[in-house]
Amino acid sequence: MAHKISTSIIVSDLLKKLDKVKTTIESGYIGNVVEVSDGVAKVSGLDDLSYSEMVEFESGVLGVAINLEEKEVGIVILGNYLDIKEGDRVRGIGRLLSIGVGHELIGRVIDPLGNPLDGKGSIKTEKFYPIEKLAPGVVKRQPVNTPLQTGIKAIDSMIPIGRGQRELIIGDRGTGKTAVTLDTILNQKGKKVICIYIAIGQKSSRVAQIIDLFNRHHAIEHTIVVAANASDPASLQYIAPYTGTAIGEFFMDQGKDALVVYDDLTKHAWAYRQISLILRRPSGREAYPGDIFYLHSRLLERSARMADKYGGGSLTSLPIIETQAGDMSAYIPTNVISITDGQIYFESDLFYAGIRPAINVGLSVSRVGGAAQIKAMKQVTGRLRLDLAQYRDLAAFAQFATDLDEKTKQQIERGARMIELLKQGQFNPMSVEEQVVLFFAGTNGFLDSIPVGRIGDFEEGLLEYFNAQHKDILKKIRTEEKISDDLSRDLNKALESFSKNF
Amino acid sequence: MKTGESVSKLKTAVVKSVVPLTAGQRNEFEMKLRVLFGEEVTITNELDRQLLGGFTVRVGDWFLDASVIRDLQKIKDSLK
């Protein structure tokens, strides 16, 4: 088949493109690499370089200037530093470290510089957002008042998270911290929340498993993954959280809601410590540099709920911190606890006792609290926290149950059943209306006659029953968001008929 | 003295061009560079046919590139 494109079309197309090209004279300072070590280069000659400005080495590798000294500049190398030789030429690019942002990133896996890692082709973005940015001021914000449903019963009932909040997830290794954030991301399907999962210093195999999980549950359609794995240079691990935040800020500025998960900030602190030590900055406690607090505070302060005048969007953060032997009073944990709006504390003891998610409700808190819950949830879980606290106090006497008065015995029995109800499997986030039904059943005594070991079956059966025969009640809870007297009566009737046949 | 530290930073300018500079052009360079750097700059002219046209200036670590080959490279990059 002959091609019918005439040369005149090709020529006019080229001329059109050439018209758009503007050539300007280029001038500036050329630097030379004096020293290269472990991800940091010392460069002389770049007299007009700005702090945090991007530079390009002769080999094409990028860097960012983070130490401006009298005769030299300390540049963190964002890439393979083995390609750089002493004497190599370096030039400033003239713009601050920034990343391409936009809707095109949704569903992709990228590195902290915006390069795709999933093999699905290059990403063309329209806008560039700076990676470092000042957090929105007080006037631009409004209080957090919309819930971010995690789908996890223990969290949505007693430690609710709102859109725009920072909630720290803290605990030892292997206690289920990442699992909770993954379930939260899965639960945002159809809720118009863009999720950004930032993997800092993790095993590549682990990140691959997480991406596979997103693909299987179709969560990748509303998620962006930023990965700086354990074998990536410390510089990339250092900027990864800021990259993810910049991406989230794009959506927030558009009036949308975004969720960012930082997994985890402990490794982020290690990466920054490595860079600071190589730059010979003075070190303090545990060899961390003096501005380790500022490292995290400036990151987490960028999460906010914007005032309606500025779009009304929000950026919610779920930073993860790994503790050693449950020590919440260590340096980095205490730093981040003081920055965030609450923490969810995971304990190994609870995990191995079979209570998963292994959340210690007593030590966990959400400083936003009830403002981030729908009225229906508040109605059914109002006393839950208190009841569980009392149960824990009495738990020691559980062995002597026969010697106690009726009221105490009842409290112990009720507490044990509520704890059983709060257990939840992985990849099983629950909608808020289903949770309300379960808690309604629990706090109104419908579980009291069921043996503790069968609560799980009861829960499964109850939800099946409601989804099959009482979809209208679930819908009412979801739309009205509160339990009116009529709804309460309907719930009671439905629960009674289910309990009879169980 | 470390490698890379410029020896005579602001004294000599190396102007590369395809054809030798005329006296008038030399004068202009000297004047402009004196304004830019705040002190006397002596011009050394080197010939480089690779530039294809225009010129480049190098004063210590500072450079200015107004060569035709750079323009062509920029056009080539933008057409990709």
UniProtKB/TrEMBL annotation, chain A:
Where in the cell does this protein reside? Cell membrane; Membrane
What is one term from the GO cellular component aspect held by the record? proton-transporting ATP synthase complex
Q: Which Pfam families did the record assign?
A: ATP-synt_ab, ATP-synt_ab_C, ATP-synt_ab_N
Molecular function per GO: ADP binding; ATP binding; hydrolase activity; proton-transporting ATP synthase activity, rotational mechanism
The record, for InterPro entries, names: ATP_synth_asu-like_sf, ATP_synth_asu_C, ATP_synth_asu_C_sf, ATP_synth_F1_a_nt-bd_dom, ATP_synth_F1_asu, ATPase_a/bsu_AS, ATPase_F1/V1/A1_a/bsu_N, ATPase_F1/V1/A1_a/bsu_N_sf
Annotated ATP binding sites: G171, D172, R173, G174, T175, G176, K177, T178
Q: Where is this site: Required for activity?
A: S364
This chain's source organism reads Candidatus Gottesmanbacteria bacterium GW2011_GWA2_43_14
> Taxonomic classification, please?
Bacteria, Candidatus Gottesmaniibacteriota
Protein name per the record: ATP synthase subunit alpha
From TrEMBL, chain B:
Which GO molecular-function terms appear in the entry? proton-transporting ATP synthase activity, rotational mechanism
Question: Does this entry carry the keyword Transmembrane?
Answer: no
Keyword terms = ATP synthesis, Hydrogen ion transport, Ion transport, Membrane, Transport
The record's Gene Ontology cellular component field reads: membrane
Q: Which compartments is it annotated to reside in? A: Membrane
* Superkingdom: Bacteria
Indicate yes or no for the key word Ion transport: yes
InterPro entries, from UniProt? ATPase_OSCP/d_CS, ATPase_OSCP/dsu
Its name, as the record gives it, is Uncharacterized protein
* Species annotation: Candidatus Gottesmanbacteria bacterium GW2011_GWA2_43_14
